[in-house]
Design a protein that fits this description.
Helix 6 links the parallel strand 6 and strand 7. Helix content is 47%, strand content 15%. It has 3 domains: 144 residues, NAD(P)-binding Rossmann-like Domain (Rossmann fold); 111 residues, no CATH class; 76 residues, RNA polymerase sigma factor, region 2, helix turn helix motif (Rna Polymerase Sigma Factor, Chain: A). It is α/β, with parallel strands linked by helices and 391 residues long. It binds nicotinamide-adenine-dinucleotide and magnesium ion. Nicotinamide-adenine-dinucleotide binds next to helix 1 and helix 9. Keywords: Isomerase, Isoprene biosynthesis, Magnesium, Manganese, Metal-binding, NADP, Oxidoreductase.
């Protein structure tokens, strides 16, 4: 039996992972499931998959979780330390599907015990790419991409030499506002930003798709995962989300990965890698699709993309700054305290403030320094938002 754990099991990626694991109960021995406030779902899945332990991120929900698991023999735990401890529980394969920088520490712990880490949590590589890659190398652990674009690139590279790669083209749906007049973006509402044209995902990544912060994170994730130069990474708008990304080789060939927009493909590929197994995803009917469209992203519509390239140029801990400021600005947009376009302005202001304090960004990339930088960036994002509100 393969020992597996799912971090962020109650979320969108987590539930798709649970779906695949539950189809094959005799193959998997489920170790840990983690979740947040949805205790009923966490307990139900822990029982269904016969997990050893279920962990909620929230200390004050431990009693509820214990009550929901009473008499099952499944352990209950809560809080950040318990999440990290879950990463240390021996497992062969671990799904990293917590949202945000909170996914970093449990994922690092899983790498330290030599597990294969299936990485949906792109923030892990954005915040601490070098640290994560070094940790994997030191412990002979493997990272596999789950983000659909990175899974597509990874699949296009099977059997290829990285030296023959000329460029990587990441596709983007363009999000909820790709066809809106630019002037209207300022007043885009939370409900409007929370509605993705093609993918069914968690609320945070859906809003990040509308602002292209999601693609900005993915550009940085691509640089870290595949070790290419930022100048080799391009973004193209592809409204149908059927081509999941492309790799261009030095002989001019472009290898594209196509499929229906269903995350169970990328999750299943990482689960069964290096084999391919049957997956319950829809098959594309190209004749019915008829045509696919592509267009260049407009700079004015998507400032987040420009910021991503600045972050890559800057290097050091600026990825952690970028992500933390973005998370905080997104919190404020979700709380309807700032407008849609304010998010990029806040992130840029925080990046500029760090740029004026280069010692902070150039500190050594340890988990402690990443965590401290993350906290400071959130604080400075709050200050930037307070200033804007006061104007
Ligand atoms: P989601 O919001 O649906 O689920 C997030 C999960 O993390 C839930 O289980 C939640 O309880 C848990 N969680 C939230 N905050 C936490 C915290 N502070 N500490 C511990 N646990 C916490 O998110 P999602 O859409 O499934 O995305 C998960 C990750 O996968 C993100 O990094 C996202 O960018 C990435 N991703 C998602 C998709 C998708 O289709 N949803 C596609 C590609 C990549
Ligand atoms: Mg993606």
């Amino acid at each position: 039996m393969r020992k597996v754990s799912i971090f962020g099991a109650t979320g969108s990626i987590g539930q798709n992972t649970v779906d695949l694991i539950a189809r094959d109960p005799n193959t998997y021995d489920v170790v840990a499931l983690t979740g947040g406030a949805n205790i009923a779902l966490l307990a139900e899945d822990a029982k269904r998959l016969r997990a050893d332990i279920a962990i909620t991120a929230y200390d004050d929900r431990l009693d509820d979780l214990r009550a929901a698991l009473a008499g099952t023999g499944i352990e209950a735990a809560a809080g950040q330390a318990a999440l990290v401890e879950a990463g240390a529980r021996p497992a062969d394969w671990v799904m990293s599907a917590i949202v945000g920088a909170a996914g970093l520490a449990p994922g690092l712990e899983a790498l330290k015990q030599g597990a294969t880490l299936a990485l949906a949590n792109k923030e892990t590589l954005v915040c601490a790419g070098q640290l994560v890659l070094d940790t994997a190398r030191q412990h002979d652990a493997r990272l596999l991409p789950v983000d659909s674009e990175h899974s597509a690139i990874f699949q296009a590279l099977v059997g290829e030499d990285m030296a023959s790669v000329e460029r990587i083209i990441i596709t983007a749906s363009g999000g909820a506002f790709r066809d809106w007049p630019l002037e209207a973006l300022e007043h885009a509402s939370l409900a409007e930003a929370s509605n993705h044209p093609n993918w069914d995902m968690g609320q945070r990544i859906t809003i990040d798709s509308a602002s292209m912060f999601n693609k900005a994170l993915e550009v940085i994730e691509t640089r870290e995962f595949f070790g290419v130069d930022p100048s080799q990474i391009e973004v193209i708008i592809h409204p149908e989300s059927m081509v999941h990304s492309l790799v261009g080789f030095r002989d001019g060939a472009l290898m594209a990965h196509l499929g229906a927009p269903d995350m169970r493909h990328a999750i299943g590929y990482a689960l069964h890698w290096p084999e391919r197994r049957d997956l319950p995803v829809a098959r594309l009917d190209l004749a019915q699709l008829g045509q696919l469209n592509f267009k260049a992203p407009e700079d004015a519509r998507y400032p987040a993309l420009r910021l991503a390239y600045e972050v890559m140029d800057r290097g050091g801990l600026s990825g952690a700054v970028f992500n933390a400021a973005k998370e905080r600005a997104l919190d404020a947009f979700i709380a309807e305290r700032i407008g849609f376009l304010d998010m990029a302005c806040v992130v840029e202001q925080v990046l500029d403030r760090f740029e004026a304090n280069p010692g902070l960004i150039d500190a050594q990339m340890t988990l402690d320094n990443v965590t401290q930088t993350d906290h400071l960036a959130r604080l400075w994002a709050d200050e930037a938002m307070a200033q804007r509100a006061g104007r």
